[in-house]
Amino acid sequence: MVDIVACTNSQILASRIAGALGARLIPVERKVFPDGELYVRLLGEPGDEAVVVQSLSPKPNDALVELILVSETLRDLGVGRIAAVIPYMAYLRQDTRFNPGEAVSAEIIGRLVRSMGYYKIVTVDMHLHRVRDPSMLLGPAVRNLSAASILAEYAVKTHNLRNPVIIGPDEEAEQWAKKAAEPLGAEYTVFEKKRISPEEVILKPRGLPDLKNRDVVIVDDIISTGGTMAKAVAEAYKNKAGRVVAAATHAVLAPGALGRIYGAGAVDVVATDTIESPISMVSVARLIVEELKRP
Ligand code: R5P
């Protein structure tokens, strides 16, 4: 019988996964010592197989150390088979050396996670830019799922959207726009994005269908500052869209992000529970459970 181990950042998702599998949930107690070190304790005795659930946001550094401490403790206690569910995998943006001397964090942290010897690493919508293949970073045990279709389905059903068009805010988001549109039989396209600064981007339409009398779902992987999403929402309205819903897998949500997107006129901003947030309306638990059941 598998135990689901709920680390600090994914307590709700871990309980949903345990509930759907009918598995036992082992909570984790985490305290921070005055010098910033973490104290970690499993609040239950594990059996011989465990799945550790830990999103690497918020506080990716603490989250990563907790994941390592918990996983190694499970091994010390004799658990033979350990899988990791890392619904939001951090450190992926620095996937190359842009300037001399920089750490290629995506590769280094990927190697670290890989070295933990998990039999399976389940992630969701990894931010893969220059490195397209997730196994190049996390090895052959990785299973990178996508929440794009369940997000778009939620947006369309909840808001009863008319003849929706799915739009990715940039070329990289084409993969998610496509996955979101296909099950709905909807049209999809992407904007062209140019980043001016960490907070500012310019978007331009490219082969956009006529949006008059049509609603739009903007689909992306991450909302961080909300700048990209806000620009995409505004651009859709500029092109005469009806109602626009903003949907992203990971709600990183820097301060002011939601204000920016609602300020651009979005009728709703939705995300999943890969990062627990006030807009986590869609759960990835079912997708993860299906993957955990696969051999
Ligand atoms: C960029 O390539 C990503 O797919 C997202 O569009 C981006 O990370 C969102 O960031 P922000 O919310 O800060 O614009």
Please characterize this protein's 3D structure.
The protein contains nine helices and 14 strands. The protein is α/β, with parallel strands linked by helices. It has two domains: 3-146 and 283-293, 3-Layer(aba) Sandwich (Rossmann fold), CATH 3.40.50.2020; 148-273, 3-Layer(aba) Sandwich (Rossmann fold). Strands 3-2-1-4-5-6-7 form a seven-stranded mixed sheet, with helices on both faces. Strands 10-9-8-11-12-13-14 form a seven-stranded mixed sheet, sandwiched between helices. β9 and β10 (200-205) form a beta hairpin. α1 (11-21) crosses α9, α5 packs across α6 and α7 (227-238) runs parallel beside α8. It is globular and about 60 Å long. The mean pLDDT is 96. Bound molecules: ribose-5-phosphate. Ribose-5-phosphate is lined by residues 169, 172-173, 220-229.
Structure annotation, total helices: 9
What is the total domain count?
Answer: 2
- Strand content range: 25-35%
Strand arrangement, major sheet: 3-2-1-4-5-6-7
CATH level-two architecture of the largest domain: 3-Layer(aba) Sandwich
State mean pLDDT (0 to 100 scale). 96
Distance between the termini: 15 Å
Q: Could you state the oligomeric state of the chains shown? A: single chain
